[in-house]
Amino acid sequence: MTRILIAEDEERIVAFLEKGLRAGGYVTTAVFSGHDALAFARDDDFDLLILDLGLPGLDGSEVLRAMRARGERMPVIVLTARDSVSDTVASLEGGADDYMTKPFRFEELLARVRVRLRDSGGATEPTILTAGRLTLDLRTRRATVDDDRTVELTAREFALLETLLRHPEQVLSREQLLSHVWGYDFDPGSNVVDVYIRYLRRKIGPELIETVRGMGYRLVR
Ligand code: CA
Asked: Of 55, 87, 99, 220, which residue is least crowded by CB atoms under 10 Å?
């Protein structure tokens, strides 16, 4: 069981993180202020901390400094606004392991969470995903069909295919795919998912991704 502490005061971001992380099998706890973050961030209780820099009370960089000074060694991924690069640099010097600028895609955060947990000796994750004729190597970022045909994918196409492969035979709605692959700030009315599904079908073969009318898409095993 891998436990992740989320310190973030924006409710919709907390909801977005908790939903995705729980679906990925992680146990999450959320706190909304810097003081709570510092009180909760104990290595005995958590394997990783996702820490917003702009927290009320104590800000994220103060939390980080204080918990490192206390001797907590859990990996910390900092969340930061796009326009505060200097804060980000300072937080990395203050003991953060990685950072994400907002807005971010869930898959991107999840990839960093996995890397940090692996580095700290946490749960190991498979690096190869397969479904039927399709193989995705998460380390080399390479997709192959029928064992011998390598398919060149863009970063978005890869993230979309990875999401489908992690939920084989499950119908994923456009909204789920949008929030996983494009992030929480994306317009829910956008047809970008359909467009990218079309790109993917062109590259990997049309029969591998099934359209479930009125519901979404499903990867066929
Ligand atoms: Ca904030």
From this structure: 220
